[in-house]
Amino acid sequence: MTKKKTEAKILTKHPEGKSGKNVSRQTYGLFKQAILSAVRGKELTHTELMSRLNKTLKSKFSGNISWYGETIKLDLEARKLIERSGSNPQKYRLK
C-alpha cells in the first residue's frame, strides 16, 4: 500500500478575525488568480463575482466553486488585496 503524498495547504484569513479554513495551495492559487482578474479594472457585486467565478472555473475545478470562492475572497479582503465599496449593493474591487 503506497502512502499518498500530503498536499500543501494554506490557512486562509478572515477580515473579521474569524477562524480560517485549510485550502490546498493549488486550489487557493486558482481561485486567487480568478478573483483578482475578475475585479481588475472594474467593481463587481457579490453576485456578479460569484457568477464570473462559476463561468471561469467550472471546466477547471470540480469542487464547490461558491464555497471556495467565498472563502478565498474573504482571505483576499483580510490580506488587503481586494476591498468592498461602501455603496449599496457593496461591490468588490482591487485595493
Descriptive labels:
95 residues; alpha+beta; Arc Repressor Mutant, subunit A; two-stranded antiparallel sheet; 3 helices; three-stranded antiparallel beta sheet
Describe what is shown at a glance.
The protein is an alpha+beta fold.
Give the full name of the CATH homologous superfamily: Winged helix-like DNA-binding domain superfamily/Winged helix DNA-binding domain
- The H/E string reads EEHEHHEE
Give the overall pLDDT as a whole number: 93
The main β sheet shows up as:
3 strands, antiparallel
Put simply, the count of helices is 3
Spatial ordering of strands, largest sheet: 3-5-4
Give the proportion of residues in helices: 40-55%
Unreliable spans are none
Looking at the structure, the CATH topology is Arc Repressor Mutant, subunit A
Choose one word for the global shape.
Answer: globular
How many separate domains?
1
How far apart are the termini? Answer: 48 Å
Number of strands: 5
Would you give an account of this structure?
- The chain has 95 residues and is α+β, with helices and mostly antiparallel strands.
- It has a single domain, classed as Winged helix-like DNA-binding domain superfamily/Winged helix DNA-binding domain (Arc Repressor Mutant, subunit A, Orthogonal Bundle).
- The N and C termini lie far apart (48 Å).
- A hairpin with a 6-residue loop joins strand 4 and strand 5.
- The chain contains 3 helices and 5 strands.
- The strands form 2 sheets. It has a 3-stranded antiparallel sheet. It has a two-stranded antiparallel ribbon with strand order 1-2.
- Helix 1 packs across helix 2, helix 1 packs across helix 3 and helix 2 crosses helix 3.
- The chain is 43% helix and 16% strand.
- The mean pLDDT is 93.
